[in-house]
Amino acid sequence: MNILYCGDTNIEDGLVISVLSLMKSVSEPLNIFVMTMDLTFWQRRILPVSEDTISYLDNRLKKQNEKSSVIRIDAADLFRAAPPLANMETRFTPCCMLRLYADQVPEIPERILYLDNDVVCRKNFSGFYHQDLSEYELAGVSDYYGKWFFRKNLFHMDYMNSGVLLLNMGRIRESGLFARCRTLCSEKKMFMPDQSAINKLAERKKLCSRVYNEQRRLHEETVFQHFTTSFRFFPWLHTLTVKPWQIEQVHEKLKLYEYDDILQEYRTVMAELKG
Q1: Angle of CA points 23, 14, 216, to nearest 5°
Q2: CB within 8 A of 201, min separation 6: which ones?
Q3: Rounded CA gap, 102 and 21, in Å?
Q4: Each residue of 257-269: pLDDT tens digit?
Q5: pTM for the complete prediction?
Q6: Rounded distance between C-alpha atoms, residue 157 and residue 160, angstroms
Q7: What is the strand order of the sheet 2-6 is part of?
Q8: pLDDT digits over 73-84, tens only?
Q9: For residues 165 and 147, what is the distance between their CA atoms, to the nearest angstrom?
Q10: What are the DSSP E strand ranges found in 88-159?
């Protein structure tokens, strides 16, 4: 199974948790690609995911299955060549958009599952990963809130959340989807720019069950839980954002203990990396 993560040093906590959850859920070899960059722009410094974190995860994966691997990809040159100029000052960091450069990386295989770093795997996802994607550029799940507001067709809720995307890279390279998304992000300021670009320009996308990207509350059938911002109505209307590595808040605010074994291992890992 090929997995893609993207981001800077700030994704490391989530990256460790997410990878540990994948290891718990599947026995197949995991070939994990981490697109990151070391870049200074507009007096702002972006630091890459550290070599130590990559090396630790690579060794940890190989202990479970010697065919597994973690590879770090430096995307700085690709980013410099075609920066998302219109969206550089949005609250979404430039590293969020690195997935849109994956078509230019020869090491990225034809089929790969992109995951945000705040996605935790709960069950075996083989059925989702190995589904027939021959007629589609990508597969994913409707955005829990965005499907109501950002759809092309009034009667078809096809606005997809980009936190879990099964990518057909062969078809994406042929159609030029990501190249067109990069151009759009360079020319037009958008809310959630990379997600908006993908939804606007994808010609063939496959919508799957929400169990593969649960963005609201954990259910018994949930396969991937995505710790996104949600709305709460009690005792007043407010937003709630809790990430997996905020363990106390996961317990206190979400009343969630499902991943305690993974989170305990995460604590041990991070203590070793920072120790």
Answers
A1: 95
A2: 177, 180, 181, 184
A3: 24
A4: 999 999 999 999 9
A5: 0.93
A6: 9
A7: 69-74, 31-36, 2-6, 111-115, 160-168, 138-142, 205-207
A8: 999 999 999 999
A9: 16
A10: 111-115, 119-121, 138-142
